[in-house]
Specification:
By secondary structure, the chain is mainly alpha-helical. Helices cover 81% and strands 0% of the residues.
């Protein structure tokens, strides 16, 4: 009886540990492929669209994107 409980608890702990490391590895690879937008990237995007971005406008857009999260 107690052996079954011990095996269940150990299996649960092993599953949680493996799941954590798999999820961590997945998120690290996702962030490498899709980095979050920073001010420099936003400035380049705005210049490609024909805008002349000021620092005030970039700060406003960064704040708006952070509020969306």
């Amino acid at each position: 009886m107690w052996v079954n409980i011990l095996i269940g608890v150990l299996s649960l702990l092993a599953g949680v540990a493996i799941g954590f490391f798999v999820a961590r590895q997945y998120m690290m690879s996702y962030m490498k492929k899709n980095p979050p937008i920073n001010e420099k990237m936003l400035r380049v995007m705005m210049m490609q669209m024909g805008m002349n971005p000021s620092q005030k406008k970039i700060n406003q857009m960064m704040k708006a994107m952070q509020n969306q999260k």
